[in-house]
Design a protein that fits this description.
alpha/beta; six-stranded mixed beta sheet; globular
Length: about 450
């Protein structure tokens, strides 16, 4: 966090005495200067051609792959990501850069016949200029990459402002990216709210991932300035379990979605909606699955649920279960880090924060539903709509329920967590603002469409 003397401090959440870095926040003028340098570099980056951009992004992928062990260790240390998840994130980051390395060769427009007479009508997508990216700490390599890679592929330059808690990861990523790109094309801007606000005001296109409160402020500021913006924000994701589901499999998937990375994912499961006769067997199976989740230091290969990112985050989780009956967990763990046991509660009263707010930790509420219609109504009753998982062996029931769920992503017989980077990512209601991320949707967001009319000149 940025403190009273404007320092950016990043600590190991498994051992808060282990300080990775402490640097001065650069301030608003530094943000504006970074954007101006990126803007000066953008024309040459675009005009260098598709082959140059493709080769550069491919080189980034190769550099990240070669540094995989170091990046994994850094994510474990700085953001407390369990070793297995950190390795998977680095692998996904490599795949993201390789995927978008082919994007510069994609068509950027179409040719149409004119409505009357000779001539042609053309559409063509062009980059906005400088992409201002504001990213969270929980996926310190993948999220900056799935924003930056399509922006760069389309011919934009990038200024990335990472969360303070992931500053060291962002700086290391920048070192690898900058080796393959011309000067000024990719810049990391450390900082907090001051630097983020300045970046939003100066950039030509803005992409944000983080809390709903901050995301709404970013969206308002960018929109008021006439700047294209997307904001991926909170989630209060449900897992619907029908009576015919494979209960053991569902419990395994849901436990992973609740407890993996201590629930610090926007796609984590926060509400488990058991339909009819599924309630009793699911209660038992899920409680047992959560109690069996390995909790410990993130550097241990067996760990699934590591520390929360800081003391405030752990306090938020422990406050959420206070006064409720815990079927599993409901305790904080001894030690230097910010650990909380994966927790399942039930009989949560209406209006409780667990049923209306994102807590962002390893805790979920078990909620009964009379039937699928009731389950869908419960799922849709919250302000968020990012992802829902549905567990059933009845394809008809799944399809019936899918169309009525007000969420951007629906996963059948799978955990709510997990991202397919080549497909659109985003939610409904307070979970998302603006166009989708990832896949071809990202290339469209980082460009604007222009229409050209070509008419023959008159000859005499």
């Amino acid at each position: 966090m940025t403190d009273a003397v404007s320092l950016i401090t990043s600590c190991n959440p498994a051992d808060p005495a282990d300080v990775l870095l402490q640097i001065p926040a650069p301030g608003a003028f530094a943000a504006v200067d970074a954007v101006e340098r990126a803007r000066a570099a953008q024309p040459d980056w675009l005009l260098g051609g598709a082959a140059a951009r493709s080769a550069a992004l491919g080189a980034v992928a190769a550099a990240i792959e070669a540094a995989g062990a170091d990046l994994t260790a850094l994510a474990v240390r700085e953001v407390g990501k369990p070793l297995a998840e950190a390795r998977a994130e680095v692998a996904r980051t490599v795949a993201i850069w390789r995927y978008y390395a082919q994007a510069p060769y994609e068509p950027v427009g179409a040719v149409h016949e004119s409505a009357a007479g000779p001539g042609l009508l053309l559409t063509r997508r062009r980059p906005h200029g400088v992409a201002g990216l504001i990213t969270p700490w929980n996926f310190p390599f993948a999220i900056p990459s799935w924003k930056a890679a399509p922006a760069l592929a389309a011919g934009n330059t990038v200024v990335l402002k990472p969360a303070p808690e992931a500053t060291a990861c962002a700086q290391r990523l920048a070192e690898l990216v900058q080796q393959a790109l011309p000067a000024g094309v990719f810049t990391v801007l450390p900082g907090g709210a001051t630097e983020g606000t300045a970046l939003v005001s100066a950039a030509d296109v803005v992409s944000f991932t983080g809390s709903t409160t901050v995301g709404r402020a970013v969206a308002r500021a960018a929109t008021d300035g006439g700047v294209p913006v997307q904001a991926e924000m909170g989630g209060l994701n449900a897992a619907i379990v029908l009576p015919d589901a494979d209960i053991e499999q569902a419990a395994t998937h849901i436990a992973a979605s609740i407890a993996g990375y201590a629930g610090q994912k926007c796609t984590a499961t926060s509400r488990v909606i058991a339909v009819g006769a599924a309630l009793d067997p699911l209660r038992e199976a899920l409680s047992e699955a959560l109690r069996a989740v390995p909790v410990g230091v993130p550097a241990d290969a067996a760990t699934v649920s590591g520390p929360l990112i800081n003391q405030h985050a752990r306090d938020q989780v422990s406050d959420a279960w206070r006064g409720l009956g815990a079927l599993a967990g409901g305790t904080v763990l001894d030690g230097p880090g910010w650990y909380a046991a994966p927790t399942l509660v039930e009989k949560v009263p209406a209006g409780h924060r667990l049923l209306s707010e994102e807590v962002f930790g390893p805790i979920a509420a078990l909620v009964p539903a009379d039937d699928l219609t009731h389950a869908v109504r419960i799922t849709n009753s919250v302000p968020y709509g990012l992802v829902t998982s549905v567990h059933t062996t009845d394809l008809d029931a799944a399809l019936c329920g899918l169309d009525r769920l007000d969420t951007g992503m629906i996963r059948v017989n799978a955990p709510s967590t997990g991202v397919d980077f080549h497909l659109p990512f985003g939610g409904a209601k307070a979970s998302s603002h603006g166009p989708r991320e990832q896949g071809r949707a990202a290339l469209e967001f980082y460009t604007s469409s222009r229409t050209y009319t070509l008419s023959p000149a008159k000859t005499t």
